[in-house]
Amino acid sequence: MSAYTLPSGDPTLTTCVSQSDSVLSFKVNIRIILNGTQLVIPNKIGNEPGCLRPLHTIDNTGDVYIESPIFYSYTLQDFFAVWGQVFTKDQIFTLHADSGHAITMTVNNVPNFQFQNYVLAPGDQITITFT
After folding, report:
1. SS3 state at 117
2. pTM value?
3. Based on C-alpha coordinates, what's the Rg of the chain?
4. Total structural domains within the chain
């Protein structure tokens, strides 16, 4: 499976937003641990010169900001799409779950099985682990 690309014409992900026009504004924190090593989520995901996407990072702390001019139920899938990466219950980046490898996820320290379909909520602490 190749990396996700932003759907053309989908205003929920491709629109450039202004923080002053946001009716929806919150952040979540995402930690990704691959075989015991925490991945640094890059800064400026969805933050291109002259265009700030509704889901974006500012630094490499794992904080993902959701700022949107519309009310919308953004999911983990949406963030990974903006990032241009794959995340499902069976795959993260190029790594696949199989008989010797598992992908698990917790939200606020509680196991969660919605994976890419999980709807982001203010203050969420999300940990995705591949072992």
Report:
1. helix
2. 0.89
3. 14
4. 1
CA distances to 21, 59, 84 from 42, in Å: 25, 7, 12
Per-residue pLDDT reduced to its tens digit, 64-112: 999 998 888 999 999 999 999 999 999 999 999 999 999 999 999 999 9
- Three-state DSSP class for 15? coil
**Domain housing 108:** 11-130
Q: How far apart are CA 58 and CA 44, in angstroms?
A: 5
CATH number at residue 114: 2.170.130
Token digits of residue 96? 């696949």
Q: Which two tokens stand for residue 86?
A: 């794959």
User: What is the C-alpha to C-alpha distance for residues 75 and 111, in angstroms, rounded to an integer?
Assistant: 17
